Amino acid sequence: MKPRSRTLAILILLSLSFDALASEVNVYSGRKEQLIKPLLDRFTAETGIQTNLVTAKADKLLVRLKNEGRNTPADLFITVDAGRLYRAKQADVLAPVNSPFLQQAVPEHLRDPDGKWVGLSLRARVIFYAKDRVDPGKLSTYEDLADAKWRKSICIRGSSNIYNQSLVASLIATHGVEATENWARGLVRNMARPPKGGDRDQIKAAAAGQCDLAVANTYYYGKMLTNKKDPAQVKAAQAMGLFWPNQNGRGAHVNISGAGITKYAKNPENALKLLEFLVSKEAQKWYAEVNFEYPVNPEAEISALVASWGDFKPDRMNLDVLGKNNAEAVRLMDRAGWK
């Protein structure tokens, strides 16, 4: 081979090698692998872009991102709850994104005002009631859970739970700190037992008669109703009814799983392609059917089971507020004796 031809061949090989290295996107995910990996595989099949996934607890991944700084391999950060997305934004590990597709596909209140994160899926935190003991006609709002008529009737997770912190943060945004603290004190008085366990445990406890009402996210209810390995979970969920609070006012409290492109992403273009794929109608439909969440894309379909729960009015406050009020919510819950 002539020297000039050899040089050209080497340049072509180097170009191909660089293209191969660039055709990837590295994902840090606080969501479990089984909930995100199938979508990443679909993305790879459609685009040829390889996805590399690291899963762990969201708070650990955020610490890792901060410690890695410019050296992080992560291009996209996925987590649950607007509160955690706000923490990532405040830690300055996310980059602003300007995408007309994202702006069109995801409603404004489910996106960061500064473009640093976008919602991927939606869940509501609602009231579940024991069908054999509670008349749903007596239920109304989150605020009403502090009323004395529910004394020793409520099961709910602890104050360290980010979902409860965000619920309280939303109440602060609506009523202010003092009124919300008074509400929290009333709720604590109405707890049937000290907080323990996860959302499913609250539903199971109510079904078993330890309390009459449970506060939990809707997708846990869906997972219990369809659990093929544990008939006890199915039985417990079937004994409970779902009630949509605040339908005559601001609407039921909602939260999201979401994602943002990292500040020091090595593959930002691929990360944006993946982010846009995750809010596409097709990806949203699969995600909603598998995890019983609601799509953030209003044009995507919801699962038949979720649809059977009926339409509801969601609270449309921008979820960035949940993060802004998180620290105050935690302090308030502590003062109210919410363990």
Describe it.
Residues 3-21 have low confidence and may be disordered. α6 crosses α15 (326-335). This protein has helices at 3-22, 33-47, 58-68, 82-90, 100-105, 162-175, 177-189, 199-207, 218-225, 231-238, 268-278, 281-291, 304-307, 320-324, 326-335; strands at residues 24-29, 50-55, 76-80, 118-130, 154-155, 213-217, 240-243, 254-261, 294-295. The longest helix is centred in the N-terminal third of the chain and has 20 residues, at 3-22. Strands 1, 2, 3, 4, 5, 6, 7, 8 and 9 form a 9-stranded mixed sheet that branches. The protein has 339 residues and is α/β, with parallel strands linked by helices.
Strand residues, percent: 15-25%
| Strands, count | 9
Largest sheet: 9 strands, mixed
Uncertain segments: 3-21
Q: Residue share in helices?
A: 40-55%
Based on Cα principal axes, name the global outline: globular
Distance between the amino and carboxyl termini: 76 Å
Radius of gyration: 22 Å
Helical element count? 15
The ordered H/E elements are HEHEHEHHEEHHHEHHEEHHEHHH
**Category from helices, strands and their pairing:** alpha/beta
Give the rounded overall mean pLDDT. 93
